[in-house]
């Protein structure tokens, strides 16, 4: 397994408006010791043709993978399974990273036995302004995985964007799929995987590089989504997977918060929501765990 490079995994679905900026973000990296796995998740626009037109092998190494639409979480997993590198960094195409990100990650990997590396995160709101994601403890940069898991529940107080060992990603997906047996897209599967990565990590190091999370009004979690209630499934799965760990109160609150959020979502978008009975049934199922 290649420890001199890291794998960058980027799912793509109709990203023609973002792909050129994303390529430039990678070109701007001070350290080019990475291999990018672009996973086209059944795009129907010019994403792939723009990739082929604008990528040159001498800029950075890359692989383009095409698949039928399966959702971003499954696209990530399909790429993780084939990467040759030990560490995987997932970056969404509409986001960006500071130009020292790869260099700082590789420096940490070379000098530390680490399972997961996290970063500073700047969150963009709908007005275009950025706000820093708070970290639960800024006085240090080395944590254990469980305290990171604990502080990812009830509001993210640690970055869910991460560079993690391939074997940890696979272990997390395997555990998740014991309950999501059909590997369905419940919209925020990636958040569950990030938390399970923390669960399976002994040592987590935070670096000063920045992940820029861009506000995307077309995101499935931003626009009115007829499947938004699917996130209740992931709240239940997380509750089942973690209920034997000493954070019972937190995961109870997380499940309740998800239910309350969906209730408010229904109230706000009542006229546009179809299949309301399905939404209500999902809520009743979740309440049995509280």
TrEMBL record:
Belongs to the glycosyltransferase 2 family. WaaE/KdtX subfamily. PANTHER family: GLYCOSYLTRANSFERASE (PTHR43630:SF2), POLY-BETA-1,6-N-ACETYL-D-GLUCOSAMINE SYNTHASE (PTHR43630). It comes from Acinetobacter schindleri CIP 107287. SUPFAM superfamilies: Nucleotide-diphospho-sugar transferases (SSF53448). Residues 8-127 form the Glycosyltransferase 2-like domain. This is Glycosyltransferase 2-like domain-containing protein. InterPro entries: Glyco_trans_2-like, Nucleotide-diphossugar_trans.
């Amino acid at each position: 397994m290649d420890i001199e490079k890291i794998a960058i995994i980027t799912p793509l679905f109709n990203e023609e408006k973002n792909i050129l900026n994303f390529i430039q973000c990678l070109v701007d990296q001070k350290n080019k010791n990475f291999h990018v796995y672009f996973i086209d998740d059944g795009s129907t626009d010019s994403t792939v043709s723009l990739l082929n037109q604008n990528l040159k092998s001498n800029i950075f190494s890359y692989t383009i993978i095409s698949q039928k639409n399966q959702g971003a979480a499954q696209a990530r997993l399909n790429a993780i399974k084939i990467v040759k590198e030990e560490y995987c960094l997932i970056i969404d195409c509409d986001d960006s990273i500071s130009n020292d990100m790869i260099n700082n990650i590789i420096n940490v990997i070379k000098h530390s036995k680490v399972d997961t590396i996290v970063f500073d995160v700047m969150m963009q709101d709908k007005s275009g302004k950025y706000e820093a994601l708070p970290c639960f403890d800024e006085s240090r940069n080395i944590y254990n995985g469980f305290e990171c898991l604990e502080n990812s529940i009830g509001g993210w107080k640690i970055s869910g964007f991460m560079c993690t060992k391939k074997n940890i990603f696979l272990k997390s997906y395997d555990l998740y799929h014991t309950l999501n047996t059909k590997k369905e897209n419940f919209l925020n599967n990636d958040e569950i995987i990030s938390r399970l990565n923390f669960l399976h990590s002994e040592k987590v190091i935070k670096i000063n590089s920045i992940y820029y999370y861009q506000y995307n009004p077309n995101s499935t979690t931003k626009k009115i989504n007829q499947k938004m209630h699917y996130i209740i499934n992931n709240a239940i799965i997380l509750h089942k997977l973690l209920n034997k760990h000493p954070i019972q109160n937190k995961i109870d609150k997380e499940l309740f918060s998800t239910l309350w959020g969906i209730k408010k979502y229904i109230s706000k978008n009542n006229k546009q929501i179809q299949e309301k009975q399905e939404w209500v049934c999902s809520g009743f199922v979740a309440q049995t765990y509280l």
